[in-house]
Amino acid sequence: MQYKLSYRRWSWQMWYSVKRLGSCAYKLTAFLIIALLLGALFIATRGVHTTTDEDDQFHIGLGSQHLTDDEVKFSLCDEKFIKRQRLKGPLLYDDEYIINVFRDEYLVPPSTQEYRLETSAKYIEYMTLNSWIFLRSRVKAVLGRTARGFFVEAGALDGQYLSNSLPLERELQWTGLLVEANPRSYQKMLTKNRKAWLSPACLSPAKFPQEMILNMMEMMNARSSYDYPWIARGSSHLEETAGGDQEIIQTQFHTTYARVQCFPLATMLLALNVTHIDLLSLDVEGGEPDILRSLPWSQLTVSVMLVEHHGESSSRDEGFLNFITDKGFRVFDYQTDNEGITDYVFVSDKYWQEHGAEILKRSTNFTRAES
After folding, report:
1. What is the CATH number of domain 87-361?
2. What region holds the Methyltransferase FkbM domain (predicted)?
3. Which DSSP letter does residue 54 get?
């Protein structure tokens, strides 16, 4: 009996020991398998990289080299945010996405309603300003009674004050594009019912769209000579293209800031399916040369340009003028004020060859600086 009990005890102990040994072996095997898997994963992922692209997508790639097919992509932002990010640049002016965004979100069609123009005596005093008289007389001389042309006016203010295009629109049935980045001025322009396309964007000084900072000028206080704010608002300008004279202007007016979306002029024209401009008027307080340099001149034509140019108090900007000449234009006339700001009237060589004789006949009532 004692022998049987001892044998059973020994058998049970052996069974228990074997069971424990098996359990340890199982755990050891599992540990080794896990270790091997982790080791293999470590070796396979030694070249893991993570990046965030321009669309704010998070990329995870496996292996020492990462191809598009070997990457997993996660979008960090919603579609609207991604679209806004792409507008910051530097997609080129003819990118179909950029053209569609401008057409769908930054373009208002011509009004079919009657004009609602300001007629008060104080407001229309702008017609007595020397710069407006100079440009108006030169536009009449070079364009004559040409009807139904197409204009682009950048720095359009409220669509009436100092406008170079409004007389053409009202008297000769022209249409075109008015660009004004200052939100206050643009909202006022909407009320005028212009028969032209309107855009609240700004003209990019580069070949791609970008967000920029607009310095918006307002009167510091109400003065009798400035009952209307347009002299101040007309001095609004992009921070990045401001010159020395703008720094002085900022001491005279109150400045606030806005982040504005800018598009190349070429993008705007593609959205409108326009390849020829009869009159291009640029008055954006400093960015004009860069805007002109950004244009794809082989893909569009311009007959007449009115261009404000800063920084000519002591001498002509020969580099700028040489560029204009190289693009096939001649100086018809110009005028420089006491602050070194010049209003240029450029005429394309082709337009001059076709209409030069008529233009000279219409120019007898004033003396040209370039005669």
Report:
1. 3.40.50.150
2. 154-331
3. T
